[in-house]
Structure prediction request, 733 residues.
Amino acid sequence: MSMQPHHHAHEHHAHAQGPAHAHEPRHEAPLPAPGTVYTCPMHPEIRQDHPGSCPKCGMALEPLLPEAEAGDENPELADFSRRFWWTLPLTVAVTVLAMAGHRLGWFGMGTQSWVELLLSAPVVLWAGAPFFVRWAQSLTHRSPNMWTLIGTGTGAAFLYSVAATLAPRAFPPSFFDMGRVPVYFEAAAVIVSLTLLGQMLELRARSQTSAAIKSLLGLAPKTARRIRPDGGEEDVPLTHVHVGDLLRVRPGEKVPVDGVVVEGASAVDESMLTGEPLPVGKRAGDKLIGATLNTSGALVLRSERVGAQTMLSQIVQMVAQAQRSRAPMQRMADQVAGAFVVMVVGIALLTFLGWGLLGPEPSWVHGLVNAVAVLIIACPCALGLATPMSIMVATGRAATRGVLFRDAAAIERLREVDTLIVDKTGTLTEGKPAFHGAEPAPGWQAEEVLRLAASLDQGSEHPLADAIVGAARERGLRLDKPEEFESGSGIGVRGRVAGRRLALGNTALMRQLGVAVDALVPQAEALRAQGASVMHLAVDGELAGLLAVADPVKGSTPEALKALREAGLRVVMATGDGLTTARAVGARLGIDEVHGEVKPADKLALVEALQRQGKVVAMAGDGINDAPALAQADVGLAMGTGTDVAMNSAAVTLVKGDLRGIAQARAISQATIANMRQNLGFAFVYNALGVPLAAGLLYPFTGWLLSPMIAALAMSLSSVSVVGNALRLRARA
Prediction:
């Protein structure tokens, strides 16, 4: 926005003020109905229109956007819960029988193997069926994952036991113990039950990460009160509201869609979307955001954005997109996990052969049991969940604080930023001209100067004129109707008010009219030094006074800049405003490095220059002129009160348009990356310690062996611990 004091007072502003809404979606397709598009939490590129399993990792696909009315329990959780609880008694029975059957003497050992087979078969073949389906898919797609290990380990234990029960004489004598070939039906059953339990805990925990989206979806009202052309009114479903419809919003009701007030005045609580604690006054011409609460007066609004175009819908899409995106750290984890599975299968084979050839009798039984334990405990589910869980929790938490991350890469990069470039208008300042003050010439009163200027400016539609007229009306001044109004193309306006000839404009207009301005030059320079635009008022050819209009600094800006400096960031201001104005604002805010009169290409060049110096640059802006720099910066930060183009170009949107959000976003970034590293470190350490123990490498020194059942329990707990650690971000971030 250009408010240069050395140019004309009523110059057209270049800065485009957009409505207060979030960015447009990248695609023009309408927002899919919740639950119709399914994707993988670990591989967001997988999309399909029906539930199923991910072909890459086997994880159950989840709705891209959860339903607001849906509970925490999803279909997979319900299915796994049913399989777990219905077969748990069988698992307990077969485990008790395997551990104490020979002491109880209920059956002969040969008969006991058959009983264990009958008890465990429903557990492994029915309750564990989803696991074997995913195991087969991992082989078909050549994508080794956690189900490759679980399916191979459980299947090997169960098939070996079935063979030992059906054809014990086919085994060498060294396999026999207590009159039978030992079977491990209980191990296979317990592994399936524990894996089901782990999946249930994980799914229940993961469902909490969608709470932010569900709460956002729940903000929107279900119906709107539409005013018909004949003046009648009717309640219609929100899906039936079209652009241009007139809607009535009564006190206590939620605003149905984004629009503009055409009638009435009220205070609207926008805290649920912008975080602003105080209700915002609204009157004709003001913008309204869908899902905000009308607190007092009745309003009539004209709908401007409906469906997927509303701010609420776009925020939901941004959060969902960020939650499904993969961080660079996640791509590394995926690559490691794939190679890790192949390595673990190799270790399991070596364990089986090593114990079989070199171990104590029954050596091959020990080899099989330990190989199965290796496969189970090394399951990389904790490794795979380490980063997606942190990203999902962090983006949901950030959204509740008015910070919208477009993708996971932005979360990773933001913590490294050391230089912040800020636009002035709409970022540091309100972005809307406000009356700054009047300086009367000798013999005149400031109030009369304002009254006459406002009377004349009633004929102007310029934002600076609006500021002057608004200030006069706030003071209750009586305004006369202007006559013979004439706009002087970029230098000011002229006309008659109450029979007197008035002229309001810059020094060029005064010179053209032969009006001497020398008497107030010092006052004019002082006002310009404060960042104000100065206009001269002439009455009947004589200078009556000066009027100053400025773009006021946001109340939150000084506090935000202090927090950013304390965080170690170098702050640079770049604005299209005149250098005098820019320096005045910079001096007031303590910003030493100021660039004024910069064009969009100049802002882009500034970002590139700093990057060549090795700086990690963030750019904060809200206008169309900021878009190139926002896109070029390592992290673009768009004000949610700005234009769509700015938000489309940025990686992070600050819904409140408040720079304090940058410090919050950076803190969230740092906490999230620390959490991801904790999760990855835990997963790697867990496997590094668990695999050697399961393989029996410590047996010669300690006599320790790890049962496949204990390995399955440890595997499940590792996943739950990773999820639990990620959920800590909800309190910390």
